[in-house]
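Lab notebook, design round three. We kept the backbone fixed and only want residue identities now. Task for the bench partner: fill in a sequence for the structure below.
Input structure tokens:
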């Protein structure tokens, strides 16, 4: 697993021990994402592409006993931000739009994995897409449009 490009943001910490040892997770971030997770972030060992993961727990389930669509879409939003890490290592961006197609069930007790890609990175806009899988089977196909936050002196 590669190091965080540009230095690790202060809201992430490396996981020590357990299934996600060596991955990164949110810390000291009293926000919805930390409440909805936990989410884990790493980089593919072969091509160093950003990879995200989420262990589906009982509180993530819908009435049918599988991963709730809202929980999966929150994971997609976090995965989209991790996907833009090569362009925006501090994740200073906002979500403009996300499109999701559910193609399978997310099993409670299972691990979701997502590998995304940047389709286009313009001045402020970044267009991404990816696939969420569970045990190698597709669960969710997504695309997202993110916008970089303006830097000081730039509107």
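Proposed sequence:
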């Amino acid at each position: 697993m590669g190091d965080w490009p540009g230095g690790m943001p202060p809201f992430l910490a490396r996981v020590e021990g357990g299934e996600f040892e060596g991955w990164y997770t949110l810390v000291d971030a009293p926000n919805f994402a930390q409440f909805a997770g936990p989410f884990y972030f790493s980089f593919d060992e072969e091509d160093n592409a950003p990879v995200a993961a989420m262990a589906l727990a009982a509180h993530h389930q819908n009435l049918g006993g599988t991963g709730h669509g809202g929980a999966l879409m929150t994971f997609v939003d976090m995965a989209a931000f991790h996907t833009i890490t090569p362009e925006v290592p501090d994740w200073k961006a906002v979500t403009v739009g996300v499109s999701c197609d559910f193609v399978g069930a997310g099993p409670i007790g299972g691990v979701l994995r997502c590998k995304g890609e940047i389709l286009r990175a313009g001045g402020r806009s970044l267009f991404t897409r990816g696939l969420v899988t569970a045990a190698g089977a597709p669960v969710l196909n997504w695309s997202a449009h993110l916008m970089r936050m303006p830097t000081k002196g730039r509107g």
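Keep this in mind before ordering anything: The helical segments are 32-36, 69-83.
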